[in-house]
Specification:
alpha+beta; single chain; 3-stranded mixed beta sheet; 2 domains; 148 residues; 45% helix; 3-stranded antiparallel beta sheet
Length: 148
């Protein structure tokens, strides 16, 4: 690390602390030439997740948009806000763990549907009706039969 006071390339770490959430490392350094001290922060660089929409457009992953798409089918069901938040966190975590930064919206929808199916069948079928774009009653009925 270069000293920003004298531009010397030789510095030493004299103290290291990890943040409470474990995501940032704070390092106190001292220049071996001018002996001035300074602080650096180290964190993982996260690449933005791009969502590939059905029409081919790309947009940044939006956690709030995901939340809205989950809250609506869960309305007037037994699904709690804590369960919704956990589902959103789990989906986002799974997306970030993938080896790619561009993910099709269909893949995200499938993740949400799979998780909703385990939590509440009514919320799942409501979500699936919009996500899978049921055109007629037969498609809806076929999905219901899979649940039963």
């Amino acid at each position: 690390m270069i000293c920003h006071f004298c531009q010397n390339k030789e510095t030493e770490v004299i103290e290291t602390r990890v943040s409470d959430d474990g995501l940032v490392v704070r390092r106190r350094r001292q220049c071996l030439k001018c002996e001035k001290r300074f602080t650096t922060y180290e964190r993982v660089e996260e690449l933005p997740i791009l969502v590939i929409k059905r029409d081919g457009r790309r947009e940044h992953f939006d956690r709030e948009k995901l939340r809205k798409s989950v809250i609506l089918p869960c309305d007037k069901t037994t699904v709690s806000s804590n369960q919704i938040e956990k589902l959103i966190n789990d989906v986002e975590k799974e997306l970030k763990q993938k080896d790619k930064t561009e993910i099709e919206s269909k893949e995200i929808g499938n993740l949400v549907a799979k998780k909703l199916k385990k939590i509440d069948k009514i919320a799942y079928i409501r979500f699936a009706a919009v996500f899978k774009r049921f055109v007629d009653l037969e498609e809806f009925e076929a999905e219901l039969k899979k649940l039963l």
